[in-house]
Structures are given as C-alpha cells and as structure tokens.
Amino acid sequence: MNHEPLPIVQAARLEQQQAEQHWLIEGLWARSAIGLIGGAPKCCKTWLGLDMAVSVATGTKALGHFETKAPGKALVFLAEDALPQVRARLEALCRQRHQDLARLELYVITAPVLRLDLAADQERLAQAIDQLRPRLLLLDPLVRLHRLDENSAAEISGLLGYIRDLQRRFEVAIVLVHHASKKQRSQPGQALRGSSDLHAIGDCNAYLARDGERIVLTLEHRAAKSPPPMVLELVAGPGDQPTHLRVRAGGQPSEADSVEELPHKVIAVLAGTTAPQSRAALRERLRVNNQRLGDALQTLLDAGRATRSELGWSLA
C-alpha cells in the first residue's frame, strides 16, 4: 500500500517569524498560542479570559496594561454562565474601554452544551472557526467540555491533540480556562487539576491566585521570558463604573513602588514555591534592590507572614 511521503524541507528554508508578529497580546499571549488560565475557584479566571477576548476585538490594552498587537475577531464559549450574564460581563468590559459592543467582531457560541470528546461537536466547532476565522477562541471551563478522566494521560491526550490541530489548521490562539488546587507547588502549573499533559501543552499559561483581597497573576511562556508576578484587582466602582479586571502593580518593579506593594510581591513568589527561597533568588525574581527587599522581608517577618531559616525564606 503506497502512502503519500511526509513533507520535508531544509531547516534554513523554513519561514521566518518576525519579532513584531510573535505576540497577539504583547507579554500576555502569543499569536496562535494554546494555553490555560488556571487557578482556584473565585480567582477571576473568566474575567481574565473575557478581558483578553474584548482586547483582541477592540485592539485595546488587556488589563489596562498589555498592548494588543494583532486585533481581530474573537469567539467565546462560557459553559457555566447564562447568556444574559455573558452579555452583561462583555458590556461592562466594553464600557470601561468606551467601546460599543454592537460594533465589535466579538462572537459567542450559544449552544447549551459543547462536548469536545465527541466527533460531532468537534466538527461543529471546527466549522464555526473555519467560517469566522477568529484571532482568539476562549473555552471556559475545560471541565465542562468533555466527560473524560482528566487524570488519564491516554484519554486527555486525544482531546488536546484535537485542540492543537485546531490551532494549527486555523492559526487561532486558544485560551482554555481550567481549575487548579489550592495546594502550593514549586511551579504554578503543577497545581493544575488532572494529567500533566494539560500543563505541557501550554505555549502561554496564566495562573491566578488569591492573596487576601489581591489577585496575583503569574505568566509562563514557552518562547519568551516570563515577567515577574503581577497584582491584579477586580474593580467594581460606585454608581455606573463598569466592573473590570486590571493590573494594580506588576511588571518590573520601580523605585516608585510603594512600601506596601513589595511585600505582596514577595508573598506571591513564595506562594508559588515549596522550597525556601534565598534572598539572592528573590532579588533576581523581583528585580529589586537589596535594601528595599530587606525592608519588605523584615515587614513580613514582623507580621508573622514569612519565616527565615538557613535555607532561605518561606511563607509562615
């Protein structure tokens, strides 16, 4: 039986990717990247996913911080939210950006159920993407999109293979919202529920964790350097101010950062590790001078929120 030979090309003849073509949302999500927004319940995962979709559809900054480099159509499916609630969230995000929802190339899958472990629904989703050609597809949450055993690599790999095929066929960025446990791990991705294949597939991953009233965002990129953790806040202002998620403090810390901000950033780093962290490791991660880091560590020590040993610093 004759088969068509595999296509092969010399490496030097592969198409080059220009630096300006790498990002969909600069620093947050690469073009045509698959990844997960992971976190425990009530960490604003859906708000982040919708913020990204609105940012792509409007060409505005995600979280008021990340530049959208490749605006275009966006398609979302929220399995756990009623359609009026989906609209209300999207309208709030649009009002905050002074955008008219009715004018946007922002689309919602309205099917009550979407099962990506079934061939029929796989084909329906592929047809929708082929027809619409969105830049970004948001699927929230992953657990409602199948009835597989998430702990079985054999079962979950087939689902992820289908999602990777969608990404490659249609050059679409795919954002999967997924749950994580509250247990601390050396890396945030290790806290994701289910098979380690879920973590491994991510070209870009975003992890959300609560620190008191604050939400800590940790980013992970396969082909770019990840920034330090950022502190987010869900703004629900008085009167008609629309609800939205935004960066409160993050990126590269500056000398203008308040004394109160740095201890929370230290906590965010320590919360994502199981091993004690040396002062040098914290300085490298947070990119802050030694004096300011020392003041922050002493503040946490005095408050009983951190402990120090011969091996380094840990959460109390």
Tags for this model:
single chain, 316 residues, alpha/beta, nine-stranded mixed sheet, two-stranded antiparallel ribbon, 8 helices, 13 strands, globular
Structure summarized in a few sentences:
This protein is α/β, with parallel strands linked by helices.
Element order, helices and strands?
EEEHEHEHEHEHEEEEHHHEE
The helix content is: 25-40%
What's the number of extended β-strand segments? 13
Distinct helical segment count: 8
Biggest sheet, strands in spatial order?
5-4-6-7-3-8-9-10-11
Radius of gyration: 21 Å
Low-confidence stretches: 250-259
Strand content: 15-25%
Structural class: alpha/beta
User: Which shape, going by the Cα principal axes?
Assistant: globular
Alpha-carbon distance between the two ends: 66 Å
Overall mean pLDDT = 89
Q: Main sheet, how many strands, which sense, barrel?
A: 9 strands, mixed
Please explain how this structure is put together.
Helices cover 30% and strands 21% of the residues. The chain is built from 8 helices and 13 strands. It has a 9-stranded mixed beta sheet, with helices on both faces. Helix 2 links the parallel strand 4 and strand 5 (106-108). Mean pLDDT is 89; it is low at 250-259.
How are the elements arranged and paired?
Layout: E1 23-25, E2 29-30, E3 34-39, H1 45-58, E4 74-78, H2 83-96, E5 106-108, H3 119-132, E6 136-140, H4 153-170, E7 173-179, H5 197-200, E8 204-211, E9 214-221, E10 230-235, E11 244-249, H6 261-271, H7 279-286, H8 290-302, E12 306-309, E13 312-315
Parallel strand pairs: 3-7, 3-8, 4-5, 4-6, 6-7
Antiparallel strand pairs: 1-2, 8-9, 9-10, 10-11, 12-13
Helix pairs in contact: 1-2
